[in-house]
Write a structure and sequence with these properties.
This protein has 161 residues and is an alpha+beta fold. It contains five helices and six strands; from the N terminus they run αααββαββββα. The longest helix has 20 residues. The radius of gyration is 16 Å and the shape is globular. The N and C termini lie far apart (40 Å). 27% of the residues are buried.
Length: 161
Amino acid sequence: MSKAQKQSAHEFVAQNMREMAEKFVALGVSLQLPPNSGLTLGTHYIDIDFGKSLTAEIKFDDRFTNPMHMFQGGFLCAVLDEVYGPLTYMAAGRPVMTIEMSTSFVRPFTAKDESIVVRAEVVNQSKTLMILRAEVRSKSGKLIATSTNHSLISNDSTLRS
């Protein structure tokens, strides 16, 4: 049984992020993990294929709605980034910075949906660049949004600047 199977996906991701933060202290890099953004949005990781894919559930929250009582698109992008971030860190074994993210909205995320499931996966990875994609679905499986992400894998000199 793997380490990920012995604990929940959420606990596994949190532990992995804590270990990464400790590792980078030696380089003089301070990482706040979990980040305030994930705590605020209520990100809960529910499935992981280490370094390949990560899935999270986010509950609907009225604090993040637009005037039409729908989850505001910018907050939905932040939710996507909360899944891309840990996935890229685990795949690269070091901090990674988003350089481009694109999101296509298919239908609104409303209180009636109760929660969404975001599944992100690594499409390709080189020494310096990672390409990812994600889907956002309602609890009932309806597609809410799709996204792509291009991220730059940091090197030690990038981390120190």
